[in-house]
Amino acid sequence: MKKHQNIGFLFDLDGVLIDTESQYDNIWIRINDEFPVGIPNFQKVIKGCTLNKILNDYFPDEKVRAGVTQRLHELENKMEFTYMRGAQKFLNNLQSNNYPMALVTSSDNKKMLKLTDQMPEILEYFDFVVTGDLISNSKPSPDGYLLAASKLGISPEHCVVFEDSLQGVMAGKAAGCLVVGIYGTLEQEVIKPYSDIVVGSLSEVNLDKLKTNLLDR
User: Fold this and answer.
1) Packing angle, helices 166-174 and 143-152, rounded to 10
2) pLDDT of residue 176
């Protein structure tokens, strides 16, 4: 069956599709204990950022950067991945109706290998995957979402972005997409200014209304 080519669906990964945010909070709290940066709630400040951006912004010393990277990968190897509430059902619905989908994540290739070891089916939902290794500018830059829309062959204004972080909703908005902010990782009030729609999970998304909103833009 031919793909619908008038609208596209672009997803962040952590906190939108897979339930990892509390694990990442603990990981970055531990890393900050070992390599302190002196920033309160550091684990919240960096949400949505690629590892390269985190290293460039907060860890200028090369030896420290290497230590942080090694520690992150050690702790990521112990992570367990599960779907967020309503996520797999929503993906199945889009896939069964042949809608173009892309994944836009700040995760690097090592994290993605770990993910596919545990959830080998997840990448099969997507026509294209943007990882942190493919872009020069991390969220809130729109680069990842613009690349995904381009690869799907759909204009950004006819794409919907699903995000849970402040950096992420800002990136979606800067790309010119319709933004669905998912609260939980952050309070609703934090992401609402950069979101067109705010929900608690993908199970709350009304696909028919979403398509109407996209096509009316």
Assistant:
1) 50
2) 97
